[in-house]
Amino acid sequence: MRWLEEQGIVVEVLPIRETPPNPEELAYALQELGDIRKLLNTSGMDYRAMGLKETLDGMTAAEVFDLIQMNGNLCKRPFLIDQSKGVMLSGFRVEQWQDKLLGWVVWRCSISKGVVFWSIEQIEF
Questions:
Q1: Going along 5-103, which residue ranges are E strands?
Q2: What is the pLDDT of residue 13?
Q3: Which sequence spans correspond to the domains of the chain?
Q4: Helix axes of 23-33 and 61-70: crossing angle, nearest 10 degrees
Q5: Cβ contact 21:40 at 8 Å
Q6: Which of 4-18, 49-63, 91-105, 107-121 has the lowest mean pLDDT?
Q7: What CATH number has the domain spanning 2-122?
Q8: Which residues, other chains included, contact 73 with Cβ-Cβ below 8 Å and sequence gap of 6+?
Q9: pTM for the complete prediction?
Q10: 58: which of 1, 11, 35, 82 lies 20 to 30 Å off by Cα?
Q11: Long-range contacts of range 54-58, CB-CB < 8 Å, 24 or more positions apart?
């Protein structure tokens, strides 16, 4: 969140438990990331408590998406997606975020012990 503020990127914060990514957004994210684990907060307590490390390989993408719908904390953060702009970011690597976001403003996001960003629109500087 601090990095976004330092870049002058404005965010509206929403709680991730109430607004997890929808299945369409998750399918796009999976397509872009190529690995279902990159969608998940694999170091989170909920992931460990559910035993997903042991069961994930036997699950379909739809089953994983359903779990994220029920528990937004399973989603890796920060998580930013805007299909119309071709932007998908999961986890924070400053170089990657700079390449994708400088010159953009985030207008909807979610947060829970981390930040999940959803939709962005381009602005001119």
A1: 13-15, 79-82, 87-90
A2: 63
A3: 2-122
A4: 130
A5: no
A6: 107-121
A7: 3.40.30.10
A8: 16, 17, 41, 44, 46, 112, 113
A9: 0.75
A10: 82
A11: none
